[in-house]
Specification:
By secondary structure, this protein is of the alpha/beta class. The chain has a single domain, classed as Nucleoside phosphorylase domain (Rossmann fold). It contains eight helices and nine strands. Strands 5-8-7-6-9 form a five-stranded mixed beta barrel, surrounded by five helices. α1 crosses α3 and α4 crosses α8.
Length: 280
């Protein structure tokens, strides 16, 4: 990780030149969820290619734009598209948006993803608020030399997801009549979907969902001291004993169909954060 702090600082300087405000909230949007960003009152738009050291996503439906503005009257940045290990990026690169958000001044991070449902109760379109995760990738974003300016050598991971924010998200979903759950997400490297035996193993380990993102970002968020909320959209049923053929295009379509539900939760959480700010 040597030199990472300098790369993050250069990226932050470039963003501030276009948008000098300090965000309170940062959002990273996954497969099929780019439309959630429509809720943002936009001040500035930066393609990832215009931000130093920020790689361009290659995954389906990830547009690769950094949007700056206000969400429920709260200064916010939205990363419209994420980076993945399976694209060939080292996890220190893939999690640079989280580092950048922190450098810009964000205190809260919301991660949204598309995931396969291991829990047989889940249906396509359900929303799951992450309570915990299982890291099954081949790498960790904190491997290597630790720069103390970015965070501690051994960050605590006993509660990577903020319980107060999770409660707000769950309440928002219930008010909206959504099918919403709390669950555990298993992160795998991808890009191949899981075999039936792998799904069976993950379920026995305690996972309710499986996906190829989010956990590296949550680890870096904990390292950086960000409060984190993560939302999964169930885009396919990953049941080992009743297998269905996985299709990436169908995953994107399913996520897009649930974007309005994610947007509703996001706005409620942002409004709650705005109220917290007024009460400080």
């Amino acid at each position: 990780m040597e030199g990472l702090a300098e790369r993050v600082a250069q990226a932050a300087t470039a963003v501030r030149a276009r948008w000098p405000k300090r965000p309170r909230l940062a959002v990273v949007l996954g497969s099929g969820l780019g439309g959630v960003a429509d809720s943002l009152a936009l001040d500035a738009e930066l393609p990832y290619g215009e931000v130093p050291h920020l790689p361009r996503p290659t995954a389906l439906s990830h547009r690769g734009r950094l949007l700056c503005g206000r969400l429920a009257d709260l200064p916010a940045v939205v990363f419209q598209g994420r980076l993945h290990l399976y694209e060939g990026y080292a996890l220190a690169e893939a999690t640079l948006p989280v580092r950048l958000a922190r450098a810009l001044g964000a205190e809260v991070l919301i991660l949204a993803n598309a995931a396969g449902g291991l829990d047989p109760r889940y249906r396509v379109g359900d929303i799951v608020v992450l309570d915990d995760h299982i890291h099954c990738m081949v790498a960790n974003p904190l491997t290597g030399w630790n720069d103390g300016r970015l965070g501690p050598r051994f960050p605590d991971m006993s509660a990577p997801y903020d319980r107060a924010l999770a409660a707000v998200a769950l309440a928002a979903g219930h008010r909206g009549g959504l099918r919403i759950w709390s669950g555990v997400y298993a992160a795998v490297s991808g890009p191949a979907y899981e075999t039936r035996a792998e799904r069976r193993m993950l379920r026995r380990l305690g996972a309710d969902l499986v996906g190829m993102s989010t956990v590296p970002e949550a680890i870096v968020a904990a390292h950086a001291g960000l409060r984190t909320l993560a939302l999964s959209v169930v885009t396919n049923r990953a049941l080992p004993d009743a297998p269905e053929r996985d299709d990436a295009a169908e995953v994107v379509l399913a996520a897009g169909a649930a974007a309005q539900s994610v947007r509703r939760i996001l706005l409620d959480v942002a409004a709650e954060l705005a109220r917290e700010e007024e009460g400080e």
